[in-house]
User: What shape does this take?
Amino acid sequence: MKKVLFIASESVPFIKTGGLADVVGSLPKSFDKNEIDCRVIIPKYKCMKEKFIGDLEYITHFYMDLAWRTQYVGVFKTVYDGVTIYFIDNEYYFSGDKPYGDICYDIEKFAFFSRAALSILPVVDFRPDIIHCHDWQTGLVPVYLKDSFAQGSFYQGIKSIMTIHNLKFQGVWDAKTVRDIAGLSDYYMTPDKLGFYQDANLLKGGIAYADVVTTVSDTYAKEIQTEFYGEKLDGLMRARSNSLYGIVNGIDYDEYNPETDKYITKNYNVDTFRKDKKVNKRQLQQDLGLEVDDKKFMIGIVSRLTDQKGFDLIAYIMDELCQEDVQIVVLGTGEEKYENMFRHFDWKYGNKVSAHIYYSEEMSHRIYASCDAFLMPSLFEPCGLSQLMSLRYGTVPIVRETGGLRDTVEPYNEYESKGTGFSFANYNAHEMLNTIRYAMHVYYNKKREWNKIVDRGMMTDFSWTTSAKRYEEIYRNLLGW
Ligand code: ADP
Ligand code: GLC
Assistant: This one.
């Protein structure tokens, strides 16, 4: 039995701001339990769902030295879906009303978290063979492992993996402050380690020091070696290309299952969607005050509202799109300019656009289940889970061919009757609009073809089965086992 430890800043069902939480919450339980004991460490945020906080078991606490400070580390634990999860408690760092805030403060918070996560291991008596780190918040873990923790026999030989879920976020601050906060010497601040122009970069440290680096799709693994997608780390990505792997994410097929989903009006599956899926649409139309007509082409968007997701393209053609025979339902929060943009169009085209500027799991499931198409024209997309959820619910994705969107949505080919969605190549608003119009044409005029696209999408397997095996293979190679 090999032991693997995930360290991450979020995980479902406890705390989630994006797809990272879905992955951390669903991949560990997908490993072969006879071969791998995979546990998880996340912070114990005060803003976690209350029902979970009450259920956590207090294990112990101690004080940890970090640079010039001595800090409280509380350890809590729970077992969820068969996976052991440890929570690091520290009220000073984890009391905010959301997990992330000001970047300088976040850097201090996650430097503390990274060190605390390593420090609790002897205390909870779990010595992992591999520590699997996720995103910049845990970038210091591979660094600490080779630095101050290298002396202790407990930690010797532990391998580390850094998974990049989004290269855009790196945890960058001025080198002197990071050095002081993280308790690292100048030795680490050179350009081959954390040094990043005048600053220090936590993710860069993780990438430089981890034994293996992975990212969440094959295409993104290639893209980040180019200047456009490389976020100023393309050189390092190229340098590490021999130990860089792209493994596409899966989704939790129990959680996202139209056949059993408790949030939706009418359950359905690949055999019954023709008749039952539209029951969800009608109910949603009614609840949102849209015209109740199950023949209307309904487009869904569920997303963080950031420029990553292509909202500039949508803003550009929204008036034109609203002249068409469509309904658009949006669920998201994020940058104010996009929140206001959707509020504006909701006001302007009240009978066609319904914008929901908040976070709601229930509403997201209802949108995945009710809409005909799902729009995700990302500027870049490491993997993307929303399009996978859409496919699972028979909602046809319309995407830009980038990163994981390119790897998971097969463009419709009318001559060969192939494909699971619609896609376009360039970051161009009218290319997107034309693609939406093409989808709409197939929907309204070739319904049988449309239903076959839905069929193929629902039959594609994006559960974790295949990708969990690929991670297992990496673990195996790393340990020579
Ligand atoms: P990212 O991680 O870049 O935000 P993903 O597509 O990988 O993008 O994952 C997004 C996840 O967050 C999906 O599970 C999606 O359903 C969910 N999500 C995004 N915005 C909201 C929202 N406002 N309410 C509920 N769920 C949301
Ligand atoms: C990031 C990416 C998204 C990916 C998710 C989970 O948030 O933006 O594309 O699906 O991480 O890996």
User: Anything to note?
Assistant: The domain at 273-460 is CATH 3.40.50.2000 (Rossmann fold). The chain has 18 helices and 18 strands. Residues 18-20, 22, 302-304, 331-333, 359-361, 364, 383-386, 389 surround adenosine-5'-diphosphate (ligand 1) (CB under 6 Å).
